[in-house]
Design brief:
The protein has ten helices and four strands; from the N terminus they run E-H-H-E-H-H-E-H-H-E-H-H-H-H. It is an alpha/beta fold. The chain has one domain (about 5-180). The relative contact order is 0.20.
Length: about 190
């Protein structure tokens, strides 16, 4: 049973099948809190990569369709979303969240969360929390996906918990999803 869909601004790598490493990393953090396996969480929390923040924002008007009976969670890079919403670049998170909810046809089904400042910042946070691991120096999907696959399946729960501390909004999303999935009941 689907409990939530996560709308990402990033795109899925061609040829990756249904695997989206940013989503699997999120699921690994939810798994750490619930005890549920990632494969089981994939049935409860679905990814929806949108290939750009403009497309993601445009889809907010279809929140009810995308969410269905579940929750729609947006995970977007903090560094550029305000500009796309025609807000000042340094608008606070509350203003950005409100602008996104204002575009939604079902704001009660929508939660908004940020990567600070972006996906590369998340990868730096992962590297900071995992001794001996360094973030990719190039910005390409192959490097990103390999790095996130490693972070999903090889890092300790303590390292992922450290990442939640460095990425507070992402941590709040993880906590919310773990609550939906029955925290500690797996």
């Amino acid at each position: 049973m689907r409990l939530a869909t996560v709308l990402y601004e990033d795109k899925m790598q061609a040829g990756g099948g249904s695997v989206f490493p940013p989503h699997d990393f999120l699921l690994a953090m939810v798994s750490d809190l619930t005890g549920l396996e990632i494969w089981a969480l994939r049935r409860q929390i679905e990814p929806n990569p949108r290939n750009g923040v403009a497309k993601l924002i445009g889809d907010l008007s279809r929140t009810s369709l995308l969410a269905g009976d579940a929750l729609l969670c947006v995970l977007v890079d903090r560094d550029r979303v305000a500009e796309h919403l025609r807000l000042p670049k340094l608008a606070d998170e509350a203003a950005v969240i409100q602008a996104m909810k204002d575009r939604s046809d079902a704001p009660d089904k929508l939660t908004v969360h940020f990567l600070d400042p972006n996906l590369e910042g998340l990868m730096r946070s992962i590297a900071d929390c995992a001794p001996g691991v360094s973030a990719p120096s190039t910005k390409d999907h192959n490097s990103r996906d390999l790095f996130l696959k490693h972070a999903t399946f090889k890092l300790s729960a303590a390292a992922r918990d450290c990442v939640k501390g460095k990425q507070a909004s992402l941590g709040a999303l993880v906590e919310r999803l773990a609550g939906l999935c029955g925290r500690g009941e797996g």
